[in-house]
Amino acid sequence: MQRQKIVIVNTGCANISSVRFALERLGVEVEVSDDKQVIVAADKVFLPGVGTASAAMASIKQKGLVETLQELTQPVLGVCLGMQLMVASSAESKQGDIPCLSLMPGHVARMQANGLRLPHMGWNTVTHKNDDLFKGIPQDTYFYFVHSFAVPEYAHTLASCTYGSEFSAAINKNNFYGVQFHPERSGEAGAQLLTNFVNL
């Protein structure tokens, strides 16, 4: 496991250190980079994100990384906003939809919390489709969430969560995976998920 080259994409607006520390605790060597060659040469790639989709996409475009990310063939894991950037568009703007990376179809919408407080913040249970990413993680395990926007359930939903209404807790298409929760803040279950991803 240690010999792999794991790269966290420096999106310029992310809480990168917590993801990095969580991986280092698992004994994984990690590099944070926005260098195209370093990203392409990685065994596994993390796409973290904190903040707004528009700021993150502006930063990714400025660094010239859109095509680089779209052409990756190794496993890629988007975390929180990083997951939302993987789909086609996000409603997280008063000016209309923001085009995202289109690594898979899908749209990010404001959560329909049906009277519950937003942002959705705290621990919530996740049900999953027994994919390799969730190996050894029981159904209805708690993960830690902080978000007001989400990808509704659809064909690429890998795991679901309910907060007012159901939404995608994880998504997947080919080598691209995304999780809406923060595995780096989700205790043992989060550590297991990160280990599973590194072992894909």
Automatic annotation (TrEMBL):
Main location as per UniProt: cytoplasm
The protein's name: Imidazole glycerol phosphate synthase subunit HisH
Name of encoding gene: hisH
PROSITE patterns xref list: GATASE_TYPE_1
Source organism of this protein record: Alteromonas profundi
The keyword Chaperone belongs to this UniProt entry's keyword annotation: no
GO terms for cellular component: cytoplasm
Active site, per annotation: 80, 182, 184
GO molecular function: glutaminase activity; imidazoleglycerol-phosphate synthase activity; lyase activity
Pfam families: GATase
Task performed by this protein: IGPS catalyzes the conversion of PRFAR and glutamine to IGP, AICAR and glutamate. The HisH subunit catalyzes the hydrolysis of glutamine to glutamate and ammonia as part of the synthesis of IGP and AICAR. The resulting ammonia molecule is channeled to the active site of HisF.
EC code(s) of this entry: 4.3.2.10, 3.5.1.2
Catalyzed reactions: 5-[(5-phospho-1-deoxy-D-ribulos-1-ylimino)methylamino]-1-(5-phospho-beta-D-ribosyl)imidazole-4-carboxamide + L-glutamine = D-erythro-1-(imidazol-4-yl)glycerol 3-phosphate + 5-amino-1-(5-phospho-beta-D-ribosyl)imidazole-4-carboxamide + L-glutamate + H(+); L-glutamine + H2O = L-glutamate + NH4(+)
Gene Ontology process terms (BP): L-histidine biosynthetic process
InterPro entries: Class_I_gatase-like, GATASE, Imidazole-glycPsynth_HisH
